[in-house]
Design brief:
This protein has about 375 residues and is an alpha/beta fold. It has helices at about 15-20, 50-55, 85-95, 120-150, 155-170, 185-190, 215-230, 240-245, 250-260, 265-275, 300-310, 310-315, 325-330, 335-340; strands at about 1-5, 40-45, 60-65, 65-70, 100-105, 200-205, 230-235, 280-285, 290-295, 315-320, 345, 355-360. The protein contains 14 helices and 12 strands.
């Protein structure tokens, strides 16, 4: 699963991306479009539960869940009509599963704002409008073909036309498609077009070092806006996080303590982005490794097994499950089994975040 980092020019996107991926690339220059091709990186999802499990199991290695991040060049007003780098980068957004929008929530006379003033809500509205205009163009291009096929009596094409028209009407009301209620069949058709405004969004408030908790007026404007749209907000000082990312572990802990943080804000952001993608983790635990596996919310036992190997899903028999609390109470899996706390679940079981599992399957 992929999340694309977007934003207006000079909001701190690439600084944030470099910090998240511990990139050693040079800091971006203070001008738009310095990211000419989308940079990609894999970021681990920090999860303290892995360390706790490993403390009981003593494995050879620990493997975190991970996700792919794509740093996309700054979008400007008029991008849908080719302004700036225009549709080239809108197409890059079309390929990701969720959008992380970096919003500038700090004042700095030395960093030019593309609009001339710092206004988080206005920044969001500029990008949202460009994405809606791009979606409208995509639907306008698609409906002609669908209508021609529908005139032959094709039932699927008629359904497609109806869904496209429903989406067009919604966009014309200046609302993103993520707010449009769709049944599963409609959602599948819309997903096939890669609609930009149908993707879930997480807002990152890029704050100054004196507002690390995101309690200043600019962030509060953003929080109020996000609450109305059902989106999350994570305050991050990209500049500070970039400095922290370059330190070794001991110095990192010392610096975090000096600014009053328990962990890097990037850890909070990574977990929030993971949830925005509709993902969670289950664990496997053995002497070779303790590992977090990524699955979508609502995944069944066989689907979770298939993440390890497709044969596990095909031959799924059952899954043995226990929780972290069981491990902390009984300390060993054998003791959990003897205490009757090891659950046996079948093909209909819906996986829960943090399940510790053994899958049984037929070859």
């Amino acid at each position: 699963m992929e999340a694309g980092i977007v934003g207006l020019p000079n909001v701190g996107k690439s600084t944030l991306f470099n910090a998240l991926t511990c990139s050693q690339s040079a800091q971006s220059a203070n001008y738009p479009f310095c990211t000419i091709e989308p940079n990609e990186g894999i970021v681990n999802i920090p999860d303290k539960r892995l360390g706790i499990i490993a403390g009981y199991v003593n494995p050879e290695r620990i493997l975190h869940a991970a996700m792919k991040l794509v740093d996309i060049a700054g979008i400007v007003k008029g991008a849908s009509e080719g302004e700036g780098l225009g549709n080239k980068f809108l197409s890059h957004i079309r390929e990701v599963d969720a959008i992380i929008q970096v919003v500038r929530c700090f004042e700095d006379d030395d960093v030019t704002h593309v609009s001339g003033e710092v206004n988080p809500v206005s920044d969001i509205e500029i990008i949202e409008m460009e994405l809606m205009l791009a979606d409208m163009q995509m639907l306008e291009n698609a409906i002609g073909k669908a209508q021609r096929t529908a005139r032959t009596g094709d039932a699927d094409a008629k359904k497609r036309v109806a869904i496209i028209e429903k989406c067009q009407a919604h966009l014309e009301s200046e609302e993103p498609l993520r707010k449009l209620e769709l049944d599963p069949e409609e959602a599948k058709i819309v997903a096939g077009y890669g609609m930009l405004t149908a993707k879930p969004v997480l807002y990152v408030a890029n704050v100054d070092e004196d507002d690390l908790l995101g309690e200043g007026p600019l962030v509060m404007q953003l929080r109020e806006f996000a609450e109305k749209t059902g989106a999350g907000v994570v305050p991050v000082c990209a500049k500070l996080e970039a400095e922290i990312a370059e330190l070794d572990e001991a110095d990192r802990v010392e610096m975090l303590e000096s600014v009053g943080l328990e962990e890097p804000a990037l850890a909070v952001l990574a977990r929030a982005a993971y949830r925005t993608l509709g993902l969670h983790s289950y664990f496997t635990a053995g002497v070779k490794e303790v590992r977090a596996w990524t699955i979508p919310l609502g995944a069944t036992g066989p689907q979770a097994a298939g993440v390890i190997h497709t044969d596990f899903e095909k031959g799924f028999i059952r899954v043995e499950v226990y929780g972290l609390e069981d491990l902390q109470e009984h300390e060993k899996e054998s003791a959990i089994r003897q205490a009757g706390k090891l659950r046996i679940e079948g093909k209909e079981y819906i996986m829960q975040d943090g399940d510790i599992c053994h899958f049984l399957f037929s070859s």
